[in-house]
Amino acid sequence: MTRKMNWEPYLLLLPSFFYLIFFFGWPMLQAFSLALRGEDGGWTLAHIQRMVNDTFFREAVITTIALIVAILPIQFLVALAMALVVNARPRGAGLFLYFYAVPLAISDLAAGIVWFAIFTQRGYLNTILQAIGLIEKPIIFLNYQKPLWVLMAIVIAEVWRATAIIMVILVAGLQSIPNDYLEAAEIFGAGLFERVTQIILPLLRPSLQVALILRTILAFQAFAVVVALAGQGATVLAKEAYKWYTDIRNPHVAAAYAGLIMVLSIATTVFYLRTLRTPEEVSL
Question: In angstroms, what CA-CA distances link 163 with 158, 159, 168, 224?
C-alpha cells in the first residue's frame, strides 16, 4: 500500500517561498549579474578585481570583521543578563523590559546621531565629566587619528541600539524551558552559574542560533551608525558599496561589494547552523 503524500506543509511554506524568491532570490541574482557583467554585457571579473584593488577595501573588511568580533560577545552577555532578569519576573519587570526595548523604536541613523551628541567634543559626556570635576577640558573621543577610539564608540552605539533584539529572542527561548529542570537543579545545589552554563545555554541553543544569525547579518550591513559617528574616519563594506553607487556612480563595483556582504552573510549563517545544531538536528 502506497503512502499518501502530505502536501499541507509545503502549501503552508509557499507564501514564504515566493516572498524569498521575489524579494531576496531575484535581487541577489541581479546583484551578482551586475557585478560579473561588463559594459558590453559580457561576463568579466574586472569589477571584482577593481573592488579588491580599491584603496579602502582592506580597511573596510578589517573594520567590518573587527566590529562583529567586538560587538557579538558584549551584546550576547548583556542580552542574556537582561533576558534572565526579565524572565525572573521581579517587581517592575514590565518597566525594565520597556526601558531596554526603547532602542528598537529608533532608526540606525537616529541612534548614530544620539551617540554622536554624547561623544562629540562639546557633547553630553564631556559636559557631565566637566561638571563633576573629573576633567578640566573636553576629551576628543571621536579622534580620527585614533581609530580604536572611534571603533569603541561605534561598538557602544551598536550594542545599545540592537541588544534589545537579541534580548527579545532570548526571553522567548527562556520561556520555553520547563521550570522543572531549573527547580531540580536548584534542589541539587546548583548555583546560578551552573544553571546558566549547564541547563539554560544548552536548551537555548536554537534561540542562540537564530539570534547569532540575525545579529551577524545586521553587523555586516552596519552603515548609518558608522557614518554618523565616524564620517570619513572609518569605513565598512556597506559604506563602500554606498560610496561606489552614489559618489563614484559605478553600480558594478557597488554590486560586487553587495555580493561580498551577501556571501559573507551566507557563509556565517551556514557556520552557525552547523556548529550550533541541536542533538535532534545532528541525528537527522
Answer: 8, 5, 9, 17
Other residues' Cβ atoms within 10 Å of the Cβ of residue 224: 19
Alpha carbon distance 216, 67 (integer Å):
10
Distance between start and end Cα atoms, the chain: 26
- Provide the residue-wise pLDDT of the chain in tens; the chain has 284 residues: 456 677 788 888 888 889 888 888 888 888 888 888 887 778 888 899 999 999 999 999 999 999 999 999 999 888 888 888 888 777 776 777 777 778 888 888 888 898 999 988 888 888 888 888 888 888 888 887 788 888 899 999 988 888 888 888 888 888 888 888 877 887 877 777 888 888 888 888 888 888 888 888 888 888 889 988 888 888 999 999 999 999 888 899 999 999 999 999 989 989 988 887 765 555 55
The three-class DSSP label of residue 37 is strand
CA atoms of 135 and 160, how far apart (whole Å): 25
Domain ranges of the chain: 70-235
Q: How far is CA 273 from the centre of its chain?
A: 16
Distances (CA, A) of 139 to 119, 122, 162, 231: 9, 9, 27, 18
Q: What DSSP designation does 169 have?
A: H
Question: Could you say which of 3.40.50.20, 1.10.1660.10, 1.10.600.10, 1.10.3720.10 is the CATH number of the domain covering 70-235?
Answer: 1.10.3720.10
What are the grid coordinates assigned to 243, written together?
560610496
